[in-house]
Design a protein that fits this description.
Oligomer: single chain
Strand order of the largest sheet: 1-3-2
Structural class: alpha+beta
Radius of gyration: 17 Å
Strand content: 5-15%
Largest sheet: 3 strands, antiparallel
Length: 116
């Protein structure tokens, strides 16, 4: 992200990450307090493998961060928390972000170069 707002590519990644009800529920749950994977899976009502898939997507977009910690009994536990992000969408913010797009579709990879 830039000081004035996210780049076009960042905005696409952030919006794609948030465009899923499970991921929205994850962010909402973590907004209250950080949590570890097993407890978060129970809170959200999904399996741990499915939760891990969604956590990876949110983490890649920079919306959450995970940290491995040892519990009192020596078990490794991964805790997640919401990052300090703020997104204020306006038409002009989207227009500015579009100027910095480097890919036409993030699922398809980089945009092909235009020939003149």
């Amino acid at each position: 992200m830039t000081a004035s707002g996210p780049t076009g590519d960042d905005l696409v990644e952030i919006l794609a990450a948030l465009a899923n009800p499970i991921r929205l529920r994850i962010v909402a749950t973590l907004a209250g307090s950080r949590d570890y994977v097993s407890h978060l899976a129970r809170e959200i009502g999904v399996s741990r493998p499915l939760l891990h898939m969604h956590l990876r997507r949110l983490e890649a977009a920079g919306l959450i961060a995970g940290r491995l910690e040892l519990s009192e009994d020596g078990k490794a536990m991964k805790y997640y928390e919401v990052t300090d992000f703020s997104l204020h969408l306006t038409a002009s913010a989207v227009a500015e972000a579009v100027k910095t797009l480097t890919r036409s579709d993030p699922e398809k990879g980089p945009a092909p170069k235009e020939s003149t």
